[in-house]
Inverse folding.
């Protein structure tokens, strides 16, 4: 049995008995019933994920998956492809947005080369990044499949391997991405899986004007027409119109779920990975926490399809895992509500009349 099959088969949903134990405790806290709203809902989820009334969330890491895309040859991004390896260097040196926000919450930033179109092996050899390169960028999906089915499996299994290798030392995972042009395959994925018209889910990415946006829509429509991905087969969608870093994110989500670890899914690119993961292993959904709603217009459609309500809505559109890092404070707060707030009986406070 392959690692992918083994992982899919091992994912079990949240434990209902632990969810009930958490709800019973939260019902008795020294406050009006459910007065902390979604924080308390999240606390129930954390208990169900971890099978504990003291869910561990202190050891945190944002895993930034990096990869390039052949479709940038179609002019779908305002930035050149060489920005991808340059930004990987910025992550390693601690100068990116994700580094600043991760430091604020005490989270590690771990970069994985899934398919950067440059030789960055020196960083891998020095231990600064993890080398899981499937190939140096995907093929141009406007002309044919972005990758082979075997490469899609390799990308997914790379993400699973990263999750498995870190599960013993990380309590709370966050997803991140880096890859110039990656809103294009992500848009193709959401359109393929949800059946939504491309024009209704295509955003401006790095700041396209109206003419560039219309061109991007046309490129995505062409890619879907050329490749005809099977909407019921997440692996086929990933292979035909996906990206190596998106596959890595999907694998990371599945690996976290198999290890019963909560995973904060970041923005538009990361949620494309979540769509792939949940297509292949629906029980993954029980371990996903949607960190925020991006300004990318397709993000709302993604959340609706997954049945997720994001924790934050701050007009973010950076990616990198920044929304996930910000939401880690909220996850830790939810845990503290469950563990640190006294019940009426513990505090010897009179409860409300029934």
């Amino acid at each position: 049995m392959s690692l992918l099959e083994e992982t899919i088969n091992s994912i079990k949903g949240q434990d209902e008995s632990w969810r009930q134990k958490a709800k019973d405790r939260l019902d008795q806290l020294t406050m009006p019933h459910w007065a902390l709203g979604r924080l308390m809902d999240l606390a129930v989820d954390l208990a169900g994920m971890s099978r504990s009334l003291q869910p561990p969330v202190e050891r945190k890491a944002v895993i930034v998956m990096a990869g390039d895309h052949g479709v940038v040859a179609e002019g779908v991004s305002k930035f050149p492809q060489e920005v991808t390896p340059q930004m990987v260097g910025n992550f390693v040196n601690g100068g990116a947005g994700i580094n600043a926000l991760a430091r604020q919450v005490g989270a590690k930033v771990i970069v994985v080369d899934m398919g950067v179109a440059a030789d960055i092996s020196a960083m891998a050899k020095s231990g600064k990044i993890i080398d899981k390169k499937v190939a140096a960028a995907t093929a141009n999906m406007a002309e044919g499949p972005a990758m082979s089915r075997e490469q899609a499996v390799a990308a997914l299994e790379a993400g699973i391997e990263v999750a498995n290798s870190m599960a013993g030392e990380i309590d709370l995972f966050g997803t991140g991405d880096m890859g110039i042009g990656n809103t294009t395959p992500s848009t193709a994925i959401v359109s393929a899986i949800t059946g939504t018209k491309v024009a209704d889910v295509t955003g401006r990415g790095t700041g396209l004007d109206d003419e560039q946006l219309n061109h991007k829509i046309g490129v995505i429509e062409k890619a879907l027409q050329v490749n005809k991905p099977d909407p019921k087969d997440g692996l086929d969608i990933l292979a035909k119109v996906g990206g190596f870093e998106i596959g890595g994110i999907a694998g990371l989500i599945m690996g976290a779920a198999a290890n019963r670890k909560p995973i904060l899914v970041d923005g538009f690119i990361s949620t494309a990975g979540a769509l792939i993961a949940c297509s292949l292993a629906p029980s993954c959904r029980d371990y996903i926490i949607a960190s925020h709603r991006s300004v990318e217009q397709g993000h709302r459609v993604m959340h609706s399809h997954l049945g997720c309500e994001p924790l934050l809505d701050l007009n973010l559109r950076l990616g990198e895992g920044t929304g996930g890092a910000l939401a880690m404070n909220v996850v830790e707060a939810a845990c503290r509500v469950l563990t640190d707030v006294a019940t009426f009986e513990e505090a010897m406070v009179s409860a409300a009349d029934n």
Observations:
- The beta strands are 60-67, 107-115, 130-131, 172-178, 263-265, 288-290.
